[in-house]
Amino acid sequence: MTLLQSTLDAPTAVYRVFDQLGRLLYVGVAIDPEVRLACHAREKLWWRDVDPSRTRIDWFPNRHAGITEENRALETESPIHNVAGTTNLPVPAHLREPRGYDNIRRLRLLDSVWIEYGTLVGDSGRSADIQAYIEWRLDNPDTPLPGKRRGPVKRTRKAAMRTVMPKAKTQD
């Protein structure tokens, strides 16, 4: 028996991953679903939304049966993050998983600001622009931002409290 034949004849899993609200995030097929899920956990930006307790793994007698079930699931269950084999639109550039980065950082921005910024620098230029700004800021920590009187200053808790609670006036 060839390696290809043994792979085609091997029991095959169809796995489904869900978020905490029970929404189907992804459907996949694998001979070793634990290894495949670990790859997704390392590589996929959407993995942070996965609720591992809701992951479902169904076994099929061979690869053909597994792929048949995966295709049926893709057509009828509308997983959010599957693109291949679905009618889902391609993932926008700013949501694709970057390669070669250990940590992915989140920015808290209004959607309208992010969209306008993408229009300004181009969808694929956001990361490079933000990285260039951060590098410039690290090299120029005391240079004020436009419209600011000074550069960033780390406040102590005591200084922050003074700005929130001004000294009480004494009556004469």
UniProtKB/TrEMBL annotation:
Residues 10-83 form the GIY-YIG domain. Residues 141-172 are annotated as: Disordered. It comes from the Bacteria. Residues 147-160 have a biased composition (Basic residues). This is GIY-YIG domain-containing protein.
